[in-house]
Amino acid sequence: MTDTAQPTPELAADNLANTIGLQLHHEPQKVAAGRGVKWLTEGWALMMKEPLVFAVMSVISLVAIFIISLVPLLGSLAVTLLWPAMVAGFFLAFKHAKQQQAVTANDLFEPFKAPTSLIGVGGMYLLASIVLFLVLGLVAFLSLGSITAIMNGQIDMGRMAGGLVILTLIAIPASLALAMAFVFAPVLVHEHQVPVIEAIKRSFFGSLRNILPFVVFFAVVMLGFFVISLFVAIPVLGWLVGIAVAIIYLPLFCGALFCAYRDIFVNNHTAS
Predict the structure, then answer these.
(1) What is the Cα–Cα distance from 173 to 133, expressed in whole angstroms?
(2) Does some domain include residue 157?
C-alpha cells in the first residue's frame, strides 16, 4: 500500500510563490485614475460578445438569490456563503470571452463543483460583517447613554447626535474596507488557488492602491443610475427600463471588475 505524499508547508508556500510569480504580479499594480472609466467600457465590450448568455446568467443568479432568500434565516446565510462562487462564475465567463472561447451559462455553475475555498471566502465575509455589525451596534447603544437613563426615557440628544456622527465616521470607511477586502478574493481563490486569507489581503491592498480609479468608477456608475432614475419614473417605460437595468447591471459590474482584476493583479506577460 503506497502512502500518498502530502505537501509540506514549505512546498505549499513555494507553489503559491510560483503561482504569484507566473500568473500574478508579486504586488498589486497601481493604475491611472482614468482606468476606472475604461473598466466599464471594456467590461461592456466583453459582455456584448455574448449579451444573451450574460443576460441569462444574470436572470438565473437574481432568481436564485430571490428564491433562496425566501427561506427564513438560512436563506440569507446561504446567499452570504455562496455569493463568492457566483461571482467566480461570472469572472470565468468573462475570462472565456476575453480569450475568444465559448461562453455558456454553465460557466456560472463551474465554481460550485468544488466550492470549499469559495465558501471559505463567504464565511470570512460573514464573520467580518458580524464583527462590523456588533461594533456599530455597540457605538449606537453607547450614544444613547446608560441603560438606566434609556429605561427612564432620559436620552441626551446632544450625546446621541455626537454618537451618530461617530457611527457614520466608523461605518463608511469600515464598509469600504470590507468591500475592498472581498471584491477580488473570489477570483484570486478560484482562478489562481490563492489561499483564502492571502486572497483577502491581496484584494484589500490591491483596491487600496487603486482607490482613485475606483472613485472614478463608482462616480460614473452613480451618474448612470441618476440618469436612469429619470426614466424609471415614466409609466410603463420606467418598468421596462428598471427590468433591463436589473438584468444588465450584474454582468456589467462583474465585467468591469474583471477588467480591473486583470489590470491590478494579472501578469500580462504570462497570461493570455
Answers:
(1) 13
(2) yes
